[in-house]
Amino acid sequence: MTKLKNKYSIQRRYVTNKNARPRIKNLGVDFLVAHETANNNADADAHYNYFQGITFSASAHTFIDDNKILEIIPLDEKAWHVRYDVPRDNRMYGDDANDVAIGTELCRTGDFDKAYDRYVWYHAYLCKKFGLNPKKDIVAHSKLDPSRRTDPQSWLEPNGVSWNKFINDVNDYYRNWGSDGSQAIKPSNPSKPSKGYRKTATDHVGMRLENIYHTNVNYYNSPRWDNPTGTFKPGHGWTITGKYIVDGSYQYQVKNSKGHTYYVTAHDKYVKVIRGKSAASSKPKPKSFKPGQKVTVKKSASTFATGESIADFVKGNSYTVKQVKSDRVLLGGIMSWVRKSDVY
Ligand SMILES: [Zn+2]
User: Fold this and answer.
1) Separation between Cα atoms, residue 64 and residue 69, nearest integer Å
2) Separation of CA 81 and ligand 1 centre (Å)
3) 330 alpha carbon to ligand 1 midpoint, in Å?
4) How do residues 58-105 score in pLDDT, each as one tens digit?
5) Cα 324 from chain centroid?
């Protein structure tokens, strides 16, 4: 049985172009920056050739495709993979990425799952090699340079892999490093997202998104509109983590109480952003009804609390609450008991 740590071999073929590789020693390795190349047509070797020929300063240490892990800059030398004038690497790790971090690029060519597995494995390898914590010491290029960069999420997410999943996958390899590789992770998520989507700005991150529609609203495990992953009920909420334009319409990226990421319509007919309030849980708020209050019978309601079916003309109509019991309200006008879950 192959142990995980022996699953792949690393090829080392160093560029000699001074623009890519100035041969300056780094100051050690304090963290890792995850990148993707954003180039649909170039594998690891093609990037070697590219950096061997460039006439400006740019590079990364390692390029990974579906059959190769290729280091083109020695890991004890600097590479130019993050702008020096971004402040966040200094704030997070106390130094500039180019001076104290290894930059690894995921190539887009070939089989994503194979390339991704190597990319995960290599990050675990670097954590072992440099004594780093996969949960804290790996950062996305997009986090360091958010105004200009979206990688590596720009290639992970279209392939169904969230940043959190990537970190968890690296951590799994890291924890099982010396054990049998047969329990290797599978880059899961068979649902491929729609091609036509992109991330967009929102100032609603951290706020609660609530279903205000009279019936269930779909959610998806990637930015798309078909094949919903599930539905959430009226009154249920999520915490907003981002916003996307998917085939021309907005979706919020949200997180539930378990930390799972989903995508939900942003249309104000169905959902509402509750300002200043985050959804710690996705449980519905307890509904309290009082006599005298006006409520509307949901279109999705089918039977009264007493079992008889609800006539269509009642659905969508508003009535005054006459009495309240634990699970039902008595509505004036029709003088019938309706479940609390069937009115809003
Ligand atoms: Zn990058």
Assistant:
1) 5
2) 6
3) 61
4) 999 999 999 999 999 999 999 999 999 899 999 999 999 999 999 999
5) 43
